[in-house]
Amino acid sequence: MFKLDKNAVKWGEGLINKNGPMVIEFDLYYIFLIVGLGLKQSQPVQNGSVFTKNYPKAYEALRHKIAALLLYTDLKASGFEVNNKANVKSAISETLSSSSYNFISDDAIEKLNGYANGGYHAIKDVLHSAPPNASIFLNIINDEFLPELFNF
Amino acid sequence: MKVSIKQIEANGLRCPDTLISFKNKPTGPVINLLQMPNGTGKTTIIELLQGALTGDVINWSPAKIKSYARKTEGDLAIEGLFKLTISIERNDNHVQIVVFQIDFDFHHGKVDFFTTPNKGAGMEDGWTPPKDLRQYITKSCVEVFVFKGDKVKDIISSNKEDAEVTIKAFFGIDSIEGFVGVVKDNFRNRVSKTTVNDRNVKSEKALLKRWDDRCALLKVKYEEFTKKLEDYVKEEKELKDNWGDVISKQKGANDRQIEIKSKIEGAKNELSRHSSLVFEQLKNPFSLSNNLISGLVTMKDSLDRMKLPGASRTFFDELIAEDNGCICGRELDGDSIKKIEENIDSYLSSNEINIINDIKRGISEANDGSSIVDELRSMFDELNILHERHEDALNEKSVFDQNAKRNADKDGSDVFDKLTKITEKIVKARTAERSLSKNSSLSDDDLKRPEKCNSYIVAEKAQDKLTEKIGGMSDMLKDVQANQILQKVITTAKDKALIHLKEHLTKLTNQKLKETLPSGSQIKVLEIDKFVQLGWNNIKQNEGSGAQNIIVAYSFARSVLEEASIEFPLIVDHPVAQVDIANRESLGSTLASMMHQFIGFLIDTERPGFLEGVNSSGDVHYISLFSNIKGNASFIDSIKKINNDETYITDNGYLCYNKDFFIENSMGASNV
User: Fold this and answer.
1) pLDDT at B19 (0 to 100)
2) Are B218 and B455 contacting, i.e. CB atoms less than 8 angstroms apart?
3) How many other CB atoms are found less than 10 A from the CB of residue B330?
4) Cβ distance of A82 and B283 shorter than 8 Å
5) CB-based contact (8 Å) between B452 and chain A?
6) φ, ψ dihedrals at B283, nearest 5°
7) B308 CB contacts (<8 Å, ≥6 apart)?
8) B558, B567 in Cβ contact below 8 A?
9) Which of B603, B601, B598, B605 lies closest to B581, judged by CA?
10) How close A76 gets to chain B, by Cα (Å)?
């Protein structure tokens, strides 16, 4: 179950607009997620609300890429070497789920929720309130965050 | 069924006393162009036309009714009359003439409404049009073919719901929603009447009562804001017109304003289109950084070195199950099977292997040398440039407005200040209205605190949830389930019908766009939801050019009418005010192909280009209407040279159907 903190939803609701570029709540979640993963910042969701059970259609093709990012960030965050077979195997087993439509286990989705929440807090530290529209938001993400992401 | 406007008669109102005949033909289209100097009562005529057709005028407040009284030297008229004559042509070629008549009593702020449902028949009290027409001339339906204010933009604007409102009104979806409300109310009444003497039930009933009160309060607030917003929008429209008048008095300002507007629109569209492309590219997370790609490649290499994913768990499961020995030919004895079973969990399942192989493939693709990272960066650079371009265009407008304000007289400058203030008020009222009708989730905690809720939609959800809970606690479980099923059936049918209609209307509108827009035009309707979403090649855009927006809006209206098997005239206030001169001619020349009767209220600044286009498009009926006042002396002199059968003169107004008079005498803002 994909969850966002209620404050995060409130913070970003004005960015979602049928006319694009960010049209669904998952678009906001995705931006928070890449920032959280890229900065290795995770924060548990305390006051969350579930907004979708599964990846929406627009993100279906990204399922394995997001799983890869989670796997990679988690291995890096835990300090394990990516060439230690036992560690990698156990990380794969914990993260991937053959029975889930989302390709990842429920625990792994909880981890994603944590990274998305971490990303929200990192963004909120820079932008106390959301910009007036998603186009400006994307520009700020590019200027302020993209150069800092995945520098580990 | 084909409905046409035949005549409008007005007496004692905020427009000259007059009798205007509009032209229509049994076959083929007619364009009626009506020009009036500003302040002559154009808005009055359009509003009364709508009020008469819908019968809505019966519900108007005394203050609103009184506002239509003519003021002559400070005195208000005591009574007034507005008469609208329409013709209805049915498939059997029978033509029915229907007259709606409004008698105004301005002294008491009252109206008497009469309908003559057939030529020769007597007048009937009230609004009694033919039954088969009634469903199409409700307030929401009439708005489909009467274009005033920013209606064209409202149909395509993402923060408006005009397209969906239109579809719901025209195809009876509103009535189904009303029916769901009746079902809910009925069930709530039954539940509230249960007499179960249980403390928990009583406490939930008390909570439901608190929710009922909260919901009622929020609905009142919502309606207040909706009403306020309606008034603000109306005021803004008048102020925009007035500001347009102020600008048109300044040399060259009108053309410059159109030029800046088109620059802003162009920059906005470009920005919106490119933002969507950037976000699509950003959705490939491997394009975020080169560092990430090299890290992922290291991870992939490690997986390869470790021979991961390696063999599948399924392989060993099948090996044991089939009992055909090992693949090396050795027989599998008990010890070997035990050993395999002990280690089987350390292998991954087939599906996990597929996922890992997909991951590895994705990493290889990202590392194929095409540099998706550089591509994303250069797209962001372009986005930056487009933002600056949009910002520059907005600054240009701001400088233009400030200059126009400086060059205006005191009244003009006041108009600008009022317009700025009303625009701010609209933004605030819209925010409040949105928050009062916001649909968000309702947790068990939220359910306990009605006073914290600020949306009537959420309050309604809470009422439903509690009603079902109380029903379940009061031995009404079967009724609860039956009610849920009934609501689901109705709602699903309604939702499916709406989706189907929207898809069908998208196709129809696109067919009409193809017929009407110049070939090679890169704009179409991508989808219709709350609004008409425009775009090209699946890339969304906020709007098209001024002319494209108009053609989209008219095509959407025509599609709705066609689907409902009815034809109405298209009545448009300021048909080409938002179109640059270069495109007016082509728009004017295509108007005739769009509907059987077009009635356009034109002002002087719209004439260049448009008149040439309209003139070439076929049968045009030119109408000029102006008051008998000093400021119109030149028109009054000219009209004296026109044949009597082409004029209609009253004590306070002149009406003229002569084409040359129309062409030679330009009316609008310049005659204020």
Assistant:
1) 96
2) yes
3) 9
4) no
5) no
6) -70, -5
7) A85, A88, A89, A92, B348, B356
8) no
9) B605
10) 10
Q: How close are the terminal C-alpha atoms of chain A, in Å?
A: 28
How many of the other CB atoms lie within 10 Å of CB of A125? 8
- What is the model's pTM? 0.60
Contact B160, B556 (CB under 8 A): no
CB atoms within 10 A of CB B538: 8
B535-545 pLDDT, tens digit per residue, is 888 887 878 88
CA distances from B123 to B20, B54, B59, B476 (A): 21, 17, 20, 54
Interface test with B, best of A81, A98, A137 (most B CBs within 10 A): A98
What angle is formed at CA B178 by the lines to CA B561 and CA B501, rounded to 5 degrees? Answer: 35
Residue type, B35: Q
Report the 10 Å Cβ neighbour count for A124: 16
State both tokens at B580: 């640059």
Tell me which residues of chain A, numbers 58 to 77, contact chain B at a CB-CB cutoff of 8 Å. Answer: 58-59, 62, 64-69, 71-72, 75-76
Task: Report CA dihedral (B127, B132, B133, B139) to the nearest 10 degrees.
Answer: 80
Whether residue B153 contacts residue B527, with contact meaning beta carbons closer than 8 Å, is answered with: no
Does the predicted interface ipTM exceed a cut of 0.90?
Answer: yes
Average pLDDT over residues B254-263: 87
The DSSP code sequence of B403-438 is HHHHHS-HHHHHHHHHHHHHHHHHHHHHHHHHHHT-
pLDDT in the model for residue B672: 46
Alpha carbon of A115 to those of A39, A130, B287: distances in Å? 9, 19, 19
pLDDT digits (tens, 9 = 90+) for B270-306: 998 899 999 999 999 999 999 999 888 888 888 887 7
| Closest-CA residue of chain B to A137 | B275
The string of pLDDT tens digits covering residues B381-429 is 999 999 999 999 999 999 999 999 999 999 999 999 999 999 999 999 9
Query: What is the spatial distance between Cα B51 and Cα B219, in angstroms, rounded to a whole number?
Result: 26
Distance of CA A129 to the CA centre of its chain: 20
Q: How confident is the model over B637-667, as pLDDT tens digits?
A: 999 888 888 999 998 999 999 999 999 998 8
Question: Which residues touch B24 (CB under 8 Å, ≥6 apart)?
Answer: B4, B5, B6, B30, B87, B569, B596, B597
Beta pairing class for B30-35 and B570-573: unpaired
Mean pLDDT of B168-180: 86
Q: Distance between CA B479 and CA B487 in Å, rounded?
A: 12
Which residues of A are less than 8 Å from B283 in CB distance? 30, 58-59, 62
Residues B363 and B336 sit within 8 Å (Cβ to Cβ): no
Distance between CA atoms of residues A66 and A108, nearest Å = 11
* Contact call for B289 and A67, based on CB within 8 A: no
Sheet containing strand B524-528, strands side by side: B524-528, B532-536, B539-541
Cβ contacts of residue B596 below 8 Å, gap of 6+?
Answer: B2, B4, B24, B25, B28, B29, B30, B567, B569
Contacts of B214 (CB under 8 A, 6+ apart): B450, B451, B453, B459
Tell whether B271 is within 8 A of chain A (Cβ): yes
Q: Which of A54, A30, A38 is nearest to A103 (CA)?
A: A54
CB B387 within 8 A of CB B299: no
Question: What distance in Å separates residue B302's CA from the closest CA in chain A?
Answer: 5
Cα(A131)–Cα(B1) distance, rounded to whole angstroms? Answer: 51
**Could you check whether the bond before residue A131 is cis, i.e. omega within 30 degrees of 0?**
no
